Amino acid sequence: MTAATVNAATPARPPSRLLALAEPGRAFAEMAAFYALRPAMRTLPKGDGHGVLVLPGFMASDGSTRPMRSLLTDLGYDVAGWNLGRNVRVDNARIEAMMGCVDELTDSTGGKISIVGWSLGGVFARELAKMAPEKVRQVISLGSPISDDRNHTNARRLFEFLNGEEPEPLKDGNFEGLHTPPLVPTTSILTKTDGVVGWRGSVQHPDIEYNAQTENIEVIASHCGLGVNPTVMMAVADRLAQAEGEWSPFEPRGLKGLLFPKTQLH
Fold this sequence. Notes:
Strand content: 5-15%
Helix content: 25-40%
Structural class: alpha/beta
Number of helices: 9
Shape: globular
Radius of gyration: 17 Å
Strand order of the largest sheet: 2-1-3-4-5-6
């Protein structure tokens, strides 16, 4: 079943108002859990030193990703934020600047980089990998609206108020077919209790003939807490620790499997 078929069968709609209202309290609890478990996270799989670019979500800045970047640095990666202020405008200048971030990190590390993007940052991560697959090792998105239908998100009106219904890159024929993954290993981490982006808008529907190295990982989290949720950190660390060229689907073993729901994603 293709993504288009799924979208036709299940009309896009944003999360319930109840989930949206619960976001701040749940995210605060996830932040508290992150810092409480931070010492234990040093036991997560270690990295090989390759570069990791971390992109923030809509209306957020590098400050929102600082806890995750600090953790990934401790795990042995060469980590960089985007240093582009708040993620508000979607225009050609911003896309060019993000591509500059990719170029700078690949040049400084001497190899392919991974890109981790939260929410809108994950959309950017996927599109950057499409533009320069030879520079990207893998992409991990967190609660990202990887669909051309903005009705999946509660942020649609604000996004279109700030960027218009057709942002500059779309006018130039770019950023179309968001559901199509880049030709690199791609992981979408999503939660059915997301209060900002409807989870169906984050589901990848793999096309084995196009790219078999795609997956979805379901977690129990809020949208605003995805970047600090301890379970998400476990999944991100596991994915990043894979040797280049040896990607395999996420398979939590033992008691860890209890932390990751295995429900139907359609």
